Amino acid sequence: MKALVVDDEQPLLDALQYALQREGFEVITATDSEQAIQLFNEQNPDLVILDVMLPTRSGFEVCQILRKQSNVPIIMLTARGAEGDRVVGLEIGADDYITKPFSMRELMARIRSVMRRASASSAPAGPVLKAGDLTVDVNQYEARLGDRLLNLSPKEFELLRFLMEHPGQVFSRQTLLDRVWGEDKYIEERTVDVHIHWLREKIEPNPRKPKYLLTVRGVGYKFRG
Using alpha carbons only, what angle is made at residue 63 by residues 59 and 64, rounded to the nearest 5 degrees? Predict the structure, then answer.
């Protein structure tokens, strides 16, 4: 596997490279946003570790660019600890968000977690789920709205799949975390809201008045088939 690490602090960059190599990754590094985008396009990495504070463009901007091209797992690093920044990172497509300073042990645990979730793309065969114009083909790991193929991240796909497999059943945020994200103790309940939001943007005719993904106030979410 190949990891792209983007940070303008050379000592941290060296430490991350060493730790990732011990985990079995081939590591490529970048110190600014333009170099990061270029290397991403040339090297096609399996994982991106991305600092928020970069020269020229912020890591948030880079994340948005990469997410338009690929569903590769992205973990963002930042000295900012505010909840708003964490939410922004998740809303623009990051898979996880870790605040500096952090331990390498914690980062490696998070990396293993996002890589496990990303490997869901090789999930075993399953049914084709349908609701209105929405189709989820588990065999092909594809979701379509009519004839249009939807560009879903692995977590978006698994969340949609799970809810469609249980139409009409209401699930709390914590239950969805347990069933879709598994045993990752670092993921917050707010993550569910973020991914529901992005799914609605992709599958709902009118995201402000959802047809499929419904909020049950004070409880959680359900899928209406």
Answer: 120
